[in-house]
Design goal:
CATH class of the largest domain: Mainly Alpha
Oligomer: single chain
Largest sheet: none
CATH architecture of the largest domain: Orthogonal Bundle
Helix content: over 70%
Radius of gyration: 19 Å
Order of helices and strands: HHHHHHHHHH
Low-confidence stretches: 1-7
Strand content: under 5%
CATH superfamily of the largest domain: Tetracycline Repressor, domain 2
Number of strands: 0
Shape: globular
Number of domains: 2
Distance between the termini: 41 Å
Number of helices: 10
CATH topology of the largest domain: Tetracycline Repressor, domain 2
Length: about 200
């Protein structure tokens, strides 16, 4: 078995599958940005990625699934970043540092704003977005519960802080999606600065 830090090289077939999946994701987000989610069909996405409709369904069950693509990996990366923060740091300081580390790797991803705009513009997708949000909430809450061990009413504190953290992150995403001139990191810092010092301990 390979150590966690070592990854076996991908075979040609697996590399091609990953390239096709990425091409479908990129084509979908480009079309969502250009013509809107509702007016984009699976056939449109497949054609833009230069694959067949059947190929699309080898990777995604629906166009909704494209929006959730990679969420498990993104969530895992953030949780690892949070777990690496010193236990001596105040809770929210550790969360902000983990977000900075996590976002350093995804800030260049232009799809973030498109994703947020698409979600905000579709009632159908708000339900799917809520499912994703609940997975993030549960995992952030679990991480914070470990950091708050020994505090009174740990479960309630972890739940409250997880909700606050996600509210700051989601609001920052929404504001930058609506106004791309805004700096995402600055808005995120503003959100964390609004939290009382007592919450950060």
């Amino acid at each position: 078995m390979l150590p966690d830090t070592v990854q076996a090289p991908l075979g040609l077939r697996e590399r091609k599958k990953q390239q096709t999946k990425r091409a479908l994701e990129q084509a979908a987000f480009d079309l969502f940005a250009q013509q809107g989610y509702a007016d984009t069909t699976v056939e449109d996405i497949a054609a833009a990625a230069q694959v067949s409709r059947a190929s699309f369904f080898r990777y995604f069950g629906s166009k909704e699934d494209v929006l959730a693509a990679g969420d498990d990996l993104r969530r895992e990366r953030f949780m690892h970043a949070l777990a690496r923060q010193s236990e001596d740091l105040p809770v929210l300081t550790a969360v902000r540092a983990a977000l900075a580390e996590y976002l350093a790797g995804v800030r260049a991803d232009e799809r973030r704003d498109t994703y947020t705009k698409v979600i905000l513009g579709s009632r159908v997708l708000l339900g799917r977005a809520n499912e994703i949000r609940l997975r993030w909430l549960r995992e952030v809450e679990s991480q914070l519960r470990g950091r708050l061990a020994g505090s009174s009413d740990v479960d309630a504190m972890a739940a409250m802080l997880a909700g606050i953290v996600l509210a700051v992150l989601e609001t920052s995403l929404r504001l930058t999606a609506l106004d791309p001139e805004r700096d995402f990191a600055d808005i995120l810092d503003t959100g964390f600065a609004l939290l009382t010092p007592d919450l950060a301990r």
